[in-house]
Amino acid sequence: MRPTSVGIDAMAFHGPECYVDMEDLAEARGVAPAKFTQGIGQRQMAVVTPCEDTVTMAAQAGRRALQAFDIDPDEIGTLIVGTETGVDHSKPVAVYVHELLGLPTSCRTFETKHACYGAMAGLTSAADWIQAGRARGRKALIIASDIARYGLGTPGEPTQGAGAVAMVVSPDPRLITFDPEIEGDYTRQVMDFWRPLYSKYAFADGHYSIDCYLDALESCWHDAVGKAGGSHEAFALSVLDACFYHVPFTRMAKKAHHRHWETELGRAIERDSEDGARVEDSYRQRVEPWLSLNADVGNIYTGSLFLCLIDYLRQATSEREGRPISLFSYGSGCGAALSIARVSEGAARFHRAIDPGGQLAARRRLNVEEYEEIFRACEESDRNDGERIDPARWGLTGGLHYVGTADHRRRYTK
Length: 414
Known about the structure:
By secondary structure, the protein is an alpha/beta fold. It has a single domain, classed as Thiolase/Chalcone synthase (Peroxisomal Thiolase, Chain A, domain 1), CATH 3.40.47. It has helices at 22-29, 34-37, 54-68, 93-101, 118-131, 206-227, 251-265, 274-286, 292-297, 304-314, 351-354, 357-361, 368-380; strands at 6-14, 18-21, 44-47, 76-82, 108-112, 139-148, 161-171, 176-187, 193-194, 203-204, 242-245, 324-331, 335-343, 364-366, 401-406, 409-413. A nine-stranded mixed β-sheet has the order 5-4-6-7-1-8-13-12-11, with helices on both faces. Strands 3-2-14 form a three-stranded mixed β-sheet. Strands 9-10 form a two-stranded antiparallel ribbon. Helix 3 (54-68) crosses helix 4 (93-101) and helix 6 crosses helix 7. It is globular, with a radius of gyration of 20 Å. The active site is at residues 84, 116, 246. Pfam families: HMG_CoA_synt_C, HMG_CoA_synt_N.
């Protein structure tokens, strides 16, 4: 029997144990703090140590989601890790996570990559797997895990970050129920952001990438309208309780919401006009309240959109249950999707289980010199047969660490 509803049944976040304050970084780089805190909308930036990688963050986020929502690992029939910062050209991050979480050998496991769109691709694939009746009562675990790194003193430095968001997809979900009738897709080959095999860092055409992002949003909206029979009434901005966008930096959400309005109205909107004031008011109500976690973590690529969703759900009250929300995912290169979901009945009672506030408050604030030392140490951590990395050197307290590569094999210790 095929399920009548599918969506997100559990969620959790896990990020690095250290961060740098953006005002400290601005002072060290000789720029006005407002350029970072207001210009791109970031307050803090998560910093990975050499002992934290895509695998450790994914595994710990996955474990948090399963434990917080009392889900037995044996219930998981599909594991997908969406990432653009894999640890091997061939071996997926997902298979390491599969072992670390103790998932059954009958669980199909793979990695998805399409820049920041990878986790959304995994999420929709998992929903299709369940709706097709192939899950046979099992659930899917989707994890977005990434490290955004651009180099010390580069223009992209303040848009770095790291973290993982885990989501369990199932029938009769406790948090978010997808609307299978409303979705839009878009794909086009563009060179707005990419990382060749020979480079540790990405290349980007920043302004062009923003244009590609906004064009993809508009195209997804039109595709969704076409699939909905030419009407957008079911997902008009006036009926949406919240709008979630991919957030490489929090100010991008404001640009996206403005384009969302222009697309729905079918014309340009001047920011100082009456319509511009309506857009600003809508942004403050439907977007801005859910950007706090992103402002304190930074860019986490595939997980950025879903970190906003966690922020929303940790603040949710029973009044929000049943209300529609929009989710827009964009991955450079490019691929994008726009979908609609509703807050499940009873979701509000899980707000404490979802909230990562305590985890973020426990992080260690680095000074800029410490941050730069850690950054440089990470450059050496992936070399074969290097010195074993000691988590104690970086003051780490978590239970899972990457400790270096020996005989061309990655090593992890609990």
